[in-house]
């Protein structure tokens, strides 16, 4: 148990942002306890073997799940997608643009966020877009700031 505590104390300093430039150099101390170092190495090696085994098990489970989904019929797959709430079943309905309505892009960042403010419909008509422009004379069929300009 003392070796495990010593190992954890040594690894606590690894999380510090202030790193010594000599940290990457090999250990050249002469007063090393060989047995303790060997025990620490065994612990590290067992952890590595355990994580490798867990990774292999996870990959095998994923392969089995993919094979199971491939063997499902289309109807069963759709029902499972609905049950799991996959992205293909959550397609939002696009709103229709009004005549000469200005286009607003919702942005490229934070698309995975479930915040109501970020997921609102940016294509609804606001401000000047609410007026019915199709009944206006064709000369006034201009966007904001372009009225009165030639062409």
Protein model, in words:
With 151 residues, the chain is mostly helical. It has two domains: 34-91; 94-142, no CATH class. The chain is built from three helices and no strands. The protein has helices at residues 2-12, 34-70, 74-84. The model has no long low-confidence stretch (mean pLDDT 77).
Strand content: under 5%
How many H/I helical runs? Answer: 3
Shape: elongated
Largest sheet: none
List low-confidence stretches.
none
Number of DSSP E strands:
0
Report how far apart the termini are.
84 Å
Structural class: mainly alpha
Mind telling me the C-alpha Rg? 31 Å
Helix fraction by DSSP (H/I, runs of at least 4): 25-40%
Number of domains: 2
The run of helices and strands is HHH
Write the layout of secondary structure elements.
Elements: H1 2-12, H2 34-70, H3 74-84
Q: Notable features of this structure?
A:
151 residues, mainly alpha, elongated
Short description:
This protein is 39% helix and 0% strand.
């Amino acid at each position: 148990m003392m070796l495990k505590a010593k190992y954890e104390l040594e690894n606590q300093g690894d999380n510090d942002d202030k790193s010594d430039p000599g940290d990457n150099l090999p250990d050249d101390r002469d007063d090393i306890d060989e047995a303790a170092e060997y025990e620490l190495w065994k612990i590290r090696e067992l952890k590595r073997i355990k994580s490798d085994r867990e990774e292999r098990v996870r990959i095998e489970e994923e392969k089995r799940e993919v094979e199971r989904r491939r063997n499902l019929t289309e109807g069963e797959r759709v029902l499972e997608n609905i049950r799991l709430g996959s992205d293909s079943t959550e397609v939002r309905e696009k709103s229709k643009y009004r005549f000469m309505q200005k286009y607003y892009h919702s942005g490229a960042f934070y698309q995975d966020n479930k915040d109501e403010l970020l997921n609102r419909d940016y294509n609804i008509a606001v401000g000047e877009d609410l007026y019915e422009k199709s009944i206006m004379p064709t000369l006034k069929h201009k966007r904001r700031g372009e009225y009165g300009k030639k062409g």
